[in-house]
Amino acid sequence: MKVLFPLLLGLLCSLPASAHNEVTPFPKVVQGGVPIAGLTSTEPHALIVYRMEVPVGTQRLTVTTNGGSGNLDLYLRRNVYPSYNGGDADYSSAFPGTRQRIQVDSPQDGVWYIGVQGSETGYSGVQMLAVTKLVKGALSNVTLTPPPGIYTGGTTCKLAAKGGTIRYTLDGNDPTAASPVAPASLSITGDTTVKARIFASDGREGPVAEGFYQVHPTGEVRELDSLGVVHHLGSAKGGRHLFKIAVGAGEKLTVISEGGKGTSTTSVRHGSIPPTGKPAKGDTSFIRGTTRVTIPETEAGDYFIAIDASTAYSGRSVMAYVAGDGADLMPWGAVLDPYVSVETFDPVSCEVQEGMIDAGERRILRYTTEIRNVGGQDMVMPDPVGNPFFEYQECHGHYHFKGFASSRLLDLQGNELKVGRKVSFCLLDTIRWDRASAVRPRYHCDAQGIQSGWGDVYDSGLPGQWIEIGDLAPGDYQLELTVNPDGILAETNYENNRVVIPVTIPEGE
């Protein structure tokens, strides 16, 4: 049974997010029959989760993606987020390209989550559509325009449906027959949860449509962390979202704003907010682009970022990251995806022979390790032959760098409960997470390293990807993973070598 993550969702609700492809700060909302265009993966393996309500009386649910370019996989799961790689999804579609389709006959009503994950080269310009075919006589869902998301200064929400009277609430309660009738448009000036449903003249009630609108003051500047992401940005034409990120001198800053429907421009300036419009001829005080702006060599201090709406847009994401002039290893918490497993290890198995675990039946917490090089230069490993930091593993037939990653299980106060043995790795290029990086892999087990913009992934099913938890009681804990724990490998930044995620050990494991 997979471990549940009730705490994870709460911790990820703060904005901006602290990683790029984790569950989004609040799930993007899909409205039945309303296509979402311009879906773009900033990184090839990003998993973005969408939420939709399947109304009572749905005869068929169909989710499709098409158009654009690249490769993606599509997952569908009721009540719970699908996890990275869709191992626990109720339904999945993983054909080559962007054309995916999932059909569910007689789906249960309620909340369903749609996961879109890039594969191989990632994807861009894709359209997703979720359609619910209702049984004859069933009432339709209310659509909210513009879609829920993050706006500056406020927005105007229009509610639409056919077949009755739309009633709504703004207090979090489901609308009833006594709730006010929806006006032609709602003026939203602060954080607001809109709920609406249609009421037929014969007393029948339609499904509840829900959307959360987050509103920031006009001119507010929000801070971004390196590799942090803010999803769901929306704006009317002429609107502006402002951010800033602190950088050191001589670093490389990249700002990416993409996805969703509509168009915007991105401007970046050191020390102050960039002006609107294009830079005048000869003005080098700020740089303006569409989806990606790069400052190859930064000055120390704050860089201000403006996302300006050329047209009305919705569903946009913005990310900024800083790369020093060297390698920088970082564990990617989004893919840990831990789960409890009870397994029996044979005394002659590689795991036992190499000292990873003792023979016999063991209760373990398995997890996936993904280490990314987020620096500006490759991590190049030395020749392992005769090097005391490497060991030759007979079972694998090649050298591993000793103690490359370590893990611990902590209580909610941060106290150590269980310790995983330090795991040795053969460092190689497994995934290309930055589309601006070199296209082809360079490093492998005979010439080890990780390119800038690439990562190395050790799946949870591989030897050593666990912490032995024994008779640990069910409950809420924290999983900590640290890369390069002894600081043996030279990096430009050691502050991002550790990641901690909440984890729940369920009953019956």
UniProtKB/TrEMBL annotation:
A Pfam family hit: Lysyl_oxidase
Protein's name in the database: Lysyl oxidase family protein
Matches recorded under InterPro entries: GH29D-like_dom (IPR059177), LOX-like_protein (IPR050912), Lysyl_oxidase (IPR001695), Peptidase_C_arc/bac (IPR007280)
Signal peptide: 1-19
Residue span, Peptidase C-terminal archaeal/bacterial domain: 49-118
Lineage: Bacteria, Pseudomonadati, Verrucomicrobiota, Verrucomicrobiia, Verrucomicrobiales
Keywords assigned: Signal
Keyword Signal: yes
Positions of the UniProt region annotated as Disordered: 258-282
Positions of the GH29D-like beta-sandwich domain: 146-208
